[in-house]
Amino acid sequence: MMDSSAVGANVQAQALQSTGIYAMKKADQVTADTVATLLGSVQRTAPTYNNPPNLGSSIDVRA
């Protein structure tokens, strides 16, 4: 049979563990929200190139 101090210590340990898990999940959610915001703010445009018009029109394949 466990005495009351052992039961109290066990309950306290479980409460601390639950609090730690909650804090980790909350921090993970905040990080995910921050990443989603940052990715949403990035402009998604196709790159534009300023190459001469004749570039790539002919390829010399002689070796």
Low-confidence stretches: none
Tell me the fraction of residues in β-strands, as a range: under 5%
Sheet with most strands: none
Rg, Å, rounded: 30 Å
Mean pLDDT: 85
How would you sum up the global shape?
A: rod-shaped
Structural classification: mainly alpha
End-to-end gap: 89 Å
- The topology string of helices and strands comes to H
Number of helical regions: 1
Number of strands: 0
List the SSEs and their pairings.
Blueprint lengths: L3 H38 L22
Description:
Helices cover 60% and strands 0% of the residues. The protein is built from one helix and no strands. It has one helix at residues 4-41. The longest helix is centred in the middle third of the chain and has 38 residues, at 4-41. The mean pLDDT is 85.
Keywords:
single chain, 63 residues, mainly alpha, rod-shaped
Briefly summarize what is shown.
The chain is mostly helical. The protein has one helix at residues 4-41.
